[in-house]
Amino acid sequence: MNIAKVFVIGPIGSPGSEKRRNADLLLDKVIVPAMDDLHYPVVRAERMRKPGPINRQVDYELRSTEIVIADLRDLNPNVMYELGIRQGLGLSCILLAPKTAI
């Protein structure tokens, strides 16, 4: 397991969309500051800078990153699939959801 970073899965949306603004706010104002205090860099799929197919990179992160945080705000199908991969492998995931969704 790679414990040197945090991988975040969640609804991302198109650049400039409300969904992207909300995703960026959660990431940049909540998750990143919390993980900075612990010295863990944070990665999200659209911010990966490696060349190659993004699906393979996401799959690798889901399988190898110790800390994965899932934003369940929209019950996004991709997020549910990625969460299923983690659960299928018996790996933990931190789940975030708005209070209204509980």
What is the compact description of this entry?
With 102 residues, the protein is an alpha/beta fold. The chain contains three helices and four strands.
Q: How would you sum up this structure, described in words?
A:
The protein is α/β, with parallel strands linked by helices. It has one domain (2-101): 3-Layer(aba) Sandwich (Rossmann fold), CATH 3.40.50. It is 42% helix and 21% strand. The chain has 3 helices and 4 strands; from the N terminus they run βαβαβαβ. The chain has helices at residues 18-37, 54-64, 77-88; strands spanning 2-9, 42-44, 65-71, 94-96. Helix 3 links the parallel strand 3 and strand 4 (94-96). The longest helix has 20 residues, at 18-37. The radius of gyration is 13 Å and the shape is globular. The N and C termini lie far apart (31 Å).
Estimate the strand proportion.
15-25%
Given this structure, which CATH class is correct? Answer: Alpha Beta
The gross shape turns out to be globular
Please state the CA-atom Rg, rounded to the nearest Å. 13 Å
Fill in the keyword field for this structure.
102 residues, alpha/beta, Rossmann fold, 3 helices, 42% helix
